[in-house]
Amino acid sequence: MALREFKLPDPGEGLTEADVVTWHVAVGDTVKVNDVVVEIETAKSLVELPVPFAGTVSALHVAEGDTVEVGTPIITIDDGVGGASAPADAAPVPESADGAQEGRPSAPAAPAPPAATPEGEIAEGLIGGTTSTGRTAVLVGYGVKQTEAKRRPRKGTATPDAASTPAPGASDSSRQVPEPSPAAAGGGRPLAKPPVRKLAKDLGIDLSAVTPTGDGGIVTRADVEAAAAGGTDAASADATSAAPAAPSSRPAGGAASPSGGETRIPVKGVRRMTAQAMVASAFTAPHVTEWVTVDVTATMELVEKLKRDKEFRDVKVTPLLVLAKAMCVVARRHPDINASWDEAAQEIVLKHDVNLGIAAATPRGLVVPNVKAADRMSMRELAEAIGALTATAREGRTPPADMAGGTITITNVGVFGVDAGTPILNPGEAAILAFGSVTRRPWVVGSGADERIEPRWVTTLALSFDHRLVDGELGSRFLADVAAVLADPSRGLVWG
């Protein structure tokens, strides 16, 4: 047999490590080239990682939840060259904390691996192939996923231990194996999305003891938080199943959980990257924030018209879409705001395309994917792009490329019922605009003898900008012009 180690590849964007979220294979499974075997979380997104060679899974070297450095072996594949693989039941049994071996059943013997077949030229974008830029493809996202890992059927109800023979030369630290799911022995793994599964692991919650409230029996984030607040564990599973999940992880009155104490959540992945980026931005770029309150009744009327327009019947039309279009139009009117500061060269870099960032709150933290060349899109194209971007972000699957290269950002705090805020700049950008809630307020309309008070749709816009390259006049003109387009969308036709 020939054992081949697959090491964690460089996920790009200067990242040096990743967290293992979910294994999609176990020891004894048969995989083909480009089958997705594991889902990892980088500091920017969730990424499905395919294996670059075929054979039988011989060993998993890291457990779900582990943080792994680039270049660390994560899985060993027996490609079947030179003979049959070693039987899985010869694998060592993991040791407990006191050094004694646990009495778990060993994994059944793996079936004979398929004969190795010579690989032909690999299609562009697949593992081992090239991308349109000439780089070697290492992750899903460079190309289309064409196959899926197939798990070998198992007998009985208990899930065998995932221990296996470690790869030759592997260090002691690389011989960790994932613990079997507590629910597997009870007849199946609990249904939960990777971010929810990771939250449960961080909080020490047994998913099999959590009562699911999501569609199709899926455990939701709220279910896990409720379990954490109530001190739910395997021993209290019966009591949990008899009571509905609490709506919040924070008991009434803001007190800690009934058992007292505290819960510590490791800061990893997106949350750690966001924290570092925000600190760097806040203490590097001199922030200035300006506000304007504007009557957006005309924008709300436009939104209702577009919702009835057959050209927009299958896309989501919201005030945010009109604001996004207004930002693009006004950025071309004031191109100096679509820029970044090059500290090393002491230069202002003007960007020719408006890559419009849309801040999105996700279970993994705040991410800011951006619509590339948004200023070149029609309203319909922009609606489609924003919809696709936000949907992918909420699923936690935004690729790093979608979060790179942004030039200006919108953060929609209005969806939370917030009127305004002082947003912190996305690193590398000159401006970010906070969109407050749109509410009905009494407003003075008309002038002179026609002046009167009417209920109107009103919102507040708050623009933060980097005062090194955006002075007060430019920032004020940009904000005033965006407000003007929202007050009268026909201005966009004139300025566009």
Outline the structure in words.
Strands 11, 14, 17, 18, 19, 20 and 21 form a seven-stranded mixed sheet that branches. The chain has a four-stranded antiparallel sheet with strand order 1-8-6-3, with no helix packed on it. It has 496 residues and is an alpha+beta fold. The protein folds into three domains: 1-180, OB fold (Dihydrolipoamide Acetyltransferase, E2P) (Beta Barrel); 186-254, no CATH class; 270-495, 2-Layer Sandwich (Chloramphenicol Acetyltransferase), CATH 3.30.559.10. 21% of the residues lie in helices and 21% in strands.
Characterize the biggest β-sheet.
7 strands, mixed
Q: Report the span from N to C terminus.
A: 66 Å
Question: How much strand?
Answer: 15-25%
* Global geometry: elongated
What is the element string, with H for helices and E for strands? Answer: EEEEEEEEEHEHHHEHHEEEEEEHEEEEHH
Q: Judging by the overall fold, what is the CATH architecture of the largest domain?
A: 2-Layer Sandwich
Low-confidence stretches: 83-136, 139-187, 231-256
How many helices? Answer: 9
* Integer tally of domains: 3
| CATH homologous group name of the largest domain | Chloramphenicol acetyltransferase-like domain
Supply the helix-strand structural class: alpha+beta
Radius of gyration: 27 Å
Q: Which CATH C-level class of the largest domain is it?
A: Alpha Beta
CATH topology of the largest domain: Chloramphenicol Acetyltransferase
Mean pLDDT: 75
In helices, the fraction of residues equals 10-25%
